[in-house]
Amino acid sequence: MRFIRQVMVITAKDLRAEMRTKEAINASFAFAIVVLLILSFAFEPTEDTTREISGGLLWIVFLFAGTLILNRSFARELPNDCLDALIAAPVPGAALFLGKGLANFALIFAVEIVALPVFGIFYNVRWARQFWSLMLVMVLGTWGLTAIGTVFGALTVNIRLREVMLPLLVYPVMIPILLGAMKLSTDLVAGQPISGDLMVWLKLLVGFDIIFTALSLVLMDTVLVG
Amino acid sequence: MSAAAVDCAGVWKFYGDYPALRDISLSVPAGRCLALIGRNGAGKTTLLRMLAGYSKPGKGLVTIFGKSPRETDTRQRIGFIGHGISVYDELSAIENLRLFGRLYGLPNPERSASEWLERTGLERVRDGLVREFSRGMRQRLAVARAFLHGPWLLLMDEPFTALDDRAIAVLQTVLRDALAAGRTVVMSTHQLREAMDLATHVALLNRGRLAFQGERTQEMVKDPGWVYAQYGES
Amino acid sequence: MRQKVMIVMLALAAVLLVRNLYTISLLPDEVNQGQIFRIIFFHLPAAIAAMLGSAVALLASVMFLWKKNFQYDALAVAVTEVGLAFLAVNLVTGSIWARVIWGVWWAWDPRLTSALICWILYAGYLILRQALEEPTQRATFAAVYSIFAFTDVPIVYFSIRWWRTIHPQPVFFSKGGSFPPDWSRALLVNMVAIFLLYAVLTMIRLRQEQTQREIDYLRRTVHAI
């Protein structure tokens, strides 16, 4: 299907361009590690405190590091007026959203995968006991962040204080999914499987992702062309 | 009867409440080359971008080959060169063209890309990254990108501005070939001389209004400033 | 004509409020809370008004995206701004109540927490508008953001409520409980008064938007000469 081809072409373009310069992803890696470091100074990482805050801490790191990448996403289309060419091409806004979204997702997830073992080392935590469940939560949570961040990235691309405006707009909308992701992650890192109470949070994550992805797909054209 | 390439009927464009374009009625049949001239701020860029589908008119109707500029079919048929070159610095020339070839659904993007690299004299730097190109090379690549998918309508915003001689020659050749093949060209320009060479028709925009539209005459070729003197406030 | 309608509504609201203040002050003190229970007569209508306001904002935003008529955009921003003010009233009265009853200014009560997040969401709407200069783009982007914000509101409410259920905290006025009839009447009257006030303030703000657009138009016209 032409739609899928176009999505793949855009994803490949974003990833290739990013891999050539590595600007955003290097900054994001470095930032994640710095934040992990600083947070470890903020309190004594005893086993009990770590167990309580692990989910919250991880997702703060993921959120901040992910914002760097999301900021870059539409910003990279500005030099040379490349965004014009993308809008003029017979590519539906939905394809542009998915293409960039998938690329952003891949980059943010890569940073998260690296941040996890670093977290484990700094805080002396065995985080992989519920590995696949944790991966599931990370995928769902990161996609939520990516979906919102990609659309809002298009909204803020031409604004003066874009680097500040994007997190300012994205973070409040993200609060429900962050709650769920943090709660789930805390328990998963502590070794508990997802069951009972936690299932509600998982459903919230899935629901959030579906609703906001659908909304983004529909509204992307409006944002691009008005 | 086949639809005109470009048709504006009573088009107004507002920024907020301010009219940047006022009651523009313009029809460009296929095969024509229209030179759109006017002072800075007259509305040339606004009009061109509206024809290309980047914005919608506040009042009135814009149709390209009888359809809305935003329809997928129409977008396939439009080639646009704006102020920026619209190619990616971090990709190579061939990668850029391949990318756009695929986005436009060309049957053989690789071949089309190579073909256009040759036509714009860039085949030797096909693997070079655009950020390392000279200015003239970048502009030639922009031309390649715009013409790559064989558009029926070329919309160009001051395409000759700040081009080096080689790039000017390439663009003129490419435009002549396109016009000979029955394509339509609408270009805004300050470079009256190059424009008058190629244009079959001329339109003058003055403060958002069409002050003049008509065939290109000998007087215009001899003295490109003639239209301004006659119809515009200089 | 419009001005007369506004003045009538304002007068009506004032009359209702003043009379109601008298009625409310006559009500006997509530068993558990003492004097402070009276704050519910302002706290609750403010919240409901803000909620209705956000629904109107959503409708206005969707209508703008559909019809491209700037009146809808003006309505969206007016109703959102006034709504933010009323939501702030809700938050402040809630905080005062919490201080008197529980001894803390903020207790992460689920409804107040959700209200706070909604406040931040819609404040974001205003900040986004401020950062966009071109009127059509501003109206379009703000409308898109408004749709996202409104979609998020129920999700926020649900998630905060669930979050708080697993860590039970004191809840502000379990409303399932009994509302004595003389309370209900006073509450209803106050609600009408506050809704009227909301409408009047929105109309004032709408007029302001219209004037601003006229000024912008004149300014651009002058600059073009």
Describe this structure in words.
Chain A is mostly helical. Chain A has eight helices and no strands. Chain A has helices spanning 2-21, 23-42, 47-75, 82-88, 93-122, 131-156, 162-189, 197-225. Chain A is globular and about 55 Å long. With 234 residues, chain B is an alpha/beta fold. Chain B is built from nine helices and nine strands. Chain B has helices at 44-51, 72-77, 93-103, 109-119, 135-147, 165-180, 192-198, 218-222, 226-231; strands at residues 6-15, 18-28, 33-38, 59-64, 78-81, 153-157, 184-188, 201-206, 209-215. The longest helix of chain B has 16 residues, at 165-180. The model of chain B has no long low-confidence stretch (mean pLDDT 89). Chain C is mostly helical. Chain C has a domain at 39-189. Helix content of chain C is 82%, strand content 0%. Chain C has six helices and no strands. The longest helix of chain C has 44 residues, at 181-224. At the B-C interface, loops of B face helix 6 of C.
Topology summary:
The complex is a heterotrimer of chains A (226), B (234) and C (225).
Chain A (H helix, E strand, L loop, with lengths): L1 H20 L1 H20 L4 H29 L6 H7 L4 H30 L8 H26 L5 H28 L7 H29 L1
Chain B lengths: L5 E10 L2 E11 L4 E6 L5 H8 L7 E6 L7 H6 E4 L11 H11 L5 H11 L15 H13 L5 E5 L7 H16 L3 E5 L3 H7 L2 E6 L2 E7 L2 H5 L3 H6 L3
Parallel strand pairs in B: 3-7, 3-8, 5-6, 6-7
Antiparallel strand pairs in B: 1-2, 1-4, 8-9
Chain C lengths: L1 H25 L13 H28 L2 H33 L7 H22 L3 H32 L14 H44 L1
Helix pairs in contact in C: 1-6, 2-3, 2-5, 2-6, 3-4, 3-6, 4-5
